[in-house]
Design goal:
The protein is built from eight helices and nine strands. With about 220 residues, it is an alpha/beta fold.
């Protein structure tokens, strides 16, 4: 299983979550994916979303893991401000990069020169030709949907791409599930690994994936 995020920086120290670290009201605010989500407080989102170069190695991983060549076509679904797409383009100027976003705020604040490459659309509404892309990247998106919509998106990703990489929320124990639910602002589907694999079978999804759980995020309960 290929993993383009193998070098993505994760906290070395535990993230201790206090009770009501994020409230349901915070979840509502974050759902709009506007200024409060990207550049508001930590309770409603990123707490400041800026380019810091962390995606450069991920772009290199995309190239090496999927053997991208000159003029390869790459799509990122819900690409935020386009940081990964920017680093991919800098890695190889011939890459044909495309992004979609369900946030007009994100598109407005995307890296200059990329805004015309990002299409405003909901993830499940993407529509392209069969095998149009050499690689589709979909980070932190599938598990924010309902089960029917996640199946729809997985089917589309498989149909529109030769290769794909997605991330999914998962757990093994109830403690892990509760920790992730305290942390996440948009994660509607935190499923067990075998449950995700049932969804893969239903959608005929055969691409790569990375399971994200409370251990991966280094989440701990504040005592």
């Amino acid at each position: 299983m290929k993993n383009i995020l193998k070098n993505y920086p994760q906290p070395s120290k535990p993230r201790y979550l206090k009770e009501n670290f994020r409230t349901f009201k915070d979840t509502i605010i974050a759902s709009y994916r506007d200024k409060d989500f990207y550049n508001g407080s930590k309770s409603t989102g990123y707490g400041g979303y800026k380019y810091d170069g962390r995606w450069k190695q991920i772009a290199i991983n995309c190239k090496t893991e999927y053997r991208l060549k000159d003029y390869s076509k790459i799509l990122q679904i819900n690409c935020d401000f386009g940081f990964l797409l920017y680093d991919l383009k800098n890695l190889n100027k011939t890459y044909n990069i495309f992004g979609t976003e369900s946030s007009r705020y994100a598109i407005k604040n995307a890296i200059p020169g990329l805004r015309n490459k990002i299409k405003y659309t909901k993830p499940i509404d993407i529509n392209y030709k069969k095998n149009q892309f050499d690689l589709i990247i979909c980070l932190g998106v599938v598990y924010t949907l309902t089960i029917p919509d996640s199946i729809t998106l997985l089917k589309k990703i498989s149909n529109f791409s030769k290769n794909s990489f997605i991330t999914l929320a998962t757990y093994k124990t109830e403690t892990e599930k509760k920790l992730f639910e305290k942390w996440t602002l948009g994660g509607n589907l935190c499923l067990k690994r075998n449950e995700w694999k049932l969804l893969f079978k239903e959608a005929n999804y055969k691409g790569d994936y990375l399971f994200i759980d409370s251990n991966y995020l280094n989440l701990k309960t504040k005592k």
